[in-house]
């Protein structure tokens, strides 16, 4: 009886040492593929790629600021700040459809998808415009606040 048990243990161990490494290798290669797929599929765009910013002068009196927002990305409505020279613009005119979402970072907030535009009037004596904005992508990657400063003299007419 003891001999049969020893043989049974020996056979089982041989099978174990052959089968387990095969399963381990197979599961490792599967998890490696999944990991590599996740790295390539979850690559976050840079802030400048996710939120394409442009500025133009219109009628020599207004500055038009435009953000083209990439798919699955959004900008927070309440995170926009605009400065004319060093003065904060209090009542910003934002054009675009703001949608209310329940954000994992800020709770219930209004966000812009696709595009948003801001018109700044009476800018004939303004030297520079500084804008600060912030957004995220729908995968949960949140961009730090992005700041852009433009010299009004360098802007082209719209």
Notes on the protein architecture:
By secondary structure, the chain is an alpha+beta fold. The chain has two domains: 1-43; 47-152, Immunoglobulin-like, CATH 2.60.40. Helix content is 28%, strand content 39%. The protein has helices at 2-41, 47-50, and strands at 51-58, 62-69, 73-76, 81-84, 87-88, 94-95, 98-103, 107-112, 115-120, 128-133, 135-137, 146-151.
Which helices and strands, and how do they pair?
Layout: H1 2-41, H2 47-50, E1 51-58, E2 62-69, E3 73-76, E4 81-84, E5 87-88, E6 94-95, E7 98-103, E8 107-112, E9 115-120, E10 128-133, E11 135-137, E12 146-151
Antiparallel strand pairs: 1-2, 2-9, 3-8, 3-11, 4-5, 4-10, 6-9, 7-8, 10-12
Q: Which CATH C-level class of the largest domain is it? A: Mainly Beta
SSE string, helices as H and strands as E? HHEEEEEEEEEEEE
The CATH homologous superfamily of the largest domain: Thiol:disulfide interchange protein DsbD, N-terminal domain
Spans of at least 5 consecutive residues whose pLDDT stays below 50 are 20-40
Topology, number of strands: 12
Report a brief summary of the structure.
The chain has 158 residues and is an alpha+beta fold.
Write a concise keyword list for the protein shown above.
158 residues; alpha+beta; Immunoglobulin-like; 2 domains; four-stranded antiparallel β-sheet; 2 helices; 12 strands; 39% strand; rod-shaped
């Amino acid at each position: 009886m003891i001999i049969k048990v020893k043989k049974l243990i020996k056979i089982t161990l041989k099978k174990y040492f052959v089968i387990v490494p095969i399963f381990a290798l197979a599961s490792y290669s599967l998890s490696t593929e999944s990991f590599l797929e996740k790295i390539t599929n979850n690559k976050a765009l840079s802030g400048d790629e996710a939120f394409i910013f442009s500025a133009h002068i219109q009628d020599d009196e207004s500055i038009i600021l435009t953000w083209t927002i990439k798919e699955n990305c959004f900008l927070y409505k309440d995170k926009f700040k605009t400065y004319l020279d060093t003065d904060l613009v209090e009542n910003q005119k934002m054009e675009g459809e703001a949608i209310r979402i329940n954000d994992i970072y800020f709770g219930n907030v209004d966000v812009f998808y696709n595009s948003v535009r801001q018109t700044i009037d009476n800018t004939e004596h303004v030297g520079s415009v500084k804008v600060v904005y912030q957004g995220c992508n729908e995968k949960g990657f949140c961009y730090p606040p992005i700041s852009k400063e433009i010299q009004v003299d360098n802007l082209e007419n719209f």
